[in-house]
Design goal:
421 residues; alpha+beta; Beta Polymerase, domain 2; Hydrophobic Seed Protein; two-stranded antiparallel ribbon; 22 helices; binds adenosine-5'-triphosphate
Length: 421
């Protein structure tokens, strides 16, 4: 289509990091998760043409004149129009005020190392565009904003600054540090909506060095700027996070099944030292969806109770099941992961995980119609008998259908011989 196109963002940054030997070239694919392309011209039309020719789906964003091109493999490429932007309200998303050339598009970016473009057009393929000295900063391992008002315009850049400085192990340039300090002291972050805070937290908590990033945010008072009650982290020990990570890896399937992404487990864990009376307010500020926030809060409220009942070895499956049934699955899930912070809680975790993985939700041992044909009246008794059959099944008392039928007959007899009150 004869438009000029450039590799920008993390892709360009990582290519240049490889160029100065900070990462190895053959490991680039481990450092670049999404590819950003900037084009001088109609980005959406280009994305549409690409999808027509090579397949895949498009998600268009007309406000920012960008499109996400998702291939069948799930891999995606963001294609954006080079643009000029303005921040009419600090903390809110910027407004696009027009098309631009690559230089201007780079100047609207957050840090110099993210303001690099590498041409992918035929006529100047591979040419580097670096108007702000980003490659020099990469070489010197320095994070630097492009203008004094950067953090004021978009305070999420304060969070991103700490995230990148920890991830890349870069120092924050002196002037940028002063601006960051000012931004924290003057609580610029208050202008940012809970939704945007949540997005930034999600990015942090999906990083390998998530705890290091939270720790750096804590020591620079950015955590307490987000909410004054988030003034502590539950541990200073890296080994505690390693244990949590191991737990998350071991339970990946369970998390998927309950639709709780690992970053939320890490968040709930990171908030264990927040006072319970303040937790709801903190979760609201962090933009956590209401349902999940309720589960996280309930996990904190019920922790001691569930631990007192379930932190014992040797319980029969039906006993575990009967106690755990009283609590919501997500609540138990957060309790299990938060418990990594408490010593001697292995039995608690093992019981909760057994319940979540194997014992619940209960499955039908014998269908209701079968029980009715055996003489049980239709109604609430059917559910009761089915529940008791499940208890016996998980305790291993019903190895086959015959045993199930026999047990059902006994139960029906017992229920029917009870006096009706
Ligand atoms: P990674 O994917 O490795 O975290 P990335 O740089 O690709 O890094 P994105 O969040 O995808 O991260 O952002 C892409 C690019 O968009 C950044 O490199 C930066 O140039 C620009 N950008 C992102 N957020 C901002 C922001 N808040 N202010 C200015 N520019 C931004």
């Amino acid at each position: 289509m004869e438009v000029k196109a450039y590799l920008v963002g993390g892709g360009a940054r990582e290519v240049m990091r490889a160029f100065v030997n900070q990462i190895s070239t053959d490991k680039l694919q481990h450092f670049v998760f999404d590819i950003d392309i900037a084009v001088e011209g109609d980005a959406i039309a280009l994305a549409e043409a690409l999808a027509d020719e090579y397949g895949g789906a498009l998600i268009r964003n007309d406000r920012f004149r960008t499109a996400k091109w998702i291939k069948e493999t799930g891999y995606s490429i963001d294609i954006a129009m080079c643009r000029r932007e303005e921040y009419p309200i600090p903390g809110k998303l910027p407004e696009v005020i027009g098309e631009a050339e690559i230089y201007e598009d780079l100047l609207r970016r957050d840090y110099s190392f993210n303001a690099i473009a590498i041409s992918i057009s035929k006529d100047d393929f591979g040419v580097l565009y670096d108007p702000t000295g980003g490659v020099g900063d990469i070489f010197n391992k320095t994070l630097r904003v492009l203008k004094p008002l950067s953090f004021f315009e978009d305070p999420t850049r304060m969070i991103r600054a700490i995230r990148y400085s920890v991830r890349l192990n870069y120092k924050i340039d002196e002037e940028t540090s002063l601006l960051l300090l000012q931004g924290i002291e003057e609580s610029y972050i208050d202008q940012v909506s809970p939704e945007r805070v949540r997005y930034e937290l999600e990015c942090i908590l999906n990083e390998d060095f998530w705890f290091g990033i939270l720790w750096a945010m804590h020591t620079s008072n950015l955590l307490s700027a987000l909410h004054p009650e988030w003034n502590q982290l539950p541990t200073v020990s890296g080994s505690d996070t390693e244990v949590l990570e191991l737990g998350i890896r071991n339970q990946e399937e369970l998390l998927e099944q309950d639709m709780v992404p690992p970053w939320l487990v890490r968040l709930s864990w990171s908030l264990v030292s927040v006072r319970i009376e303040a937790l709801w307010d903190v979760l609201k500020r962090l933009g956590v969806h209401k349902r999940l926030a309720e589960s996280m809060l309930e996990a904190r409220e019920k922790f001691d109770e569930v631990a007192a009942r379930m932190n014992h070895a040797g319980f029969s499956p039906s006993r575990i099941y009967r106690v755990c049934q009283e609590y919501a699955r997500k609540t138990l899930l957060f309790i299990a992961f938060n418990s990594y912070l408490e010593k001697n809680t292995e039995p608690l975790r093992s019981n909760l995980m057994k319940h979540l993985r194997e014992l619940s939700p209960s499955r039908t041992v014998l269908p209701g119609e079968r029980l009715i044909s055996m003489g049980l009246p239709a109604g609430p008794l059917v559910g009761k008998v089915q529940e008791e059959l499940w208890w016996r099944k998980i305790d291993g008392e019903l190895p086959d259908d015959n045993a199930a039928e026999k047990a059902a007959r006994e139960l029906i007899e017992r229920y029917l011989s009870r006096p009706i009150v």
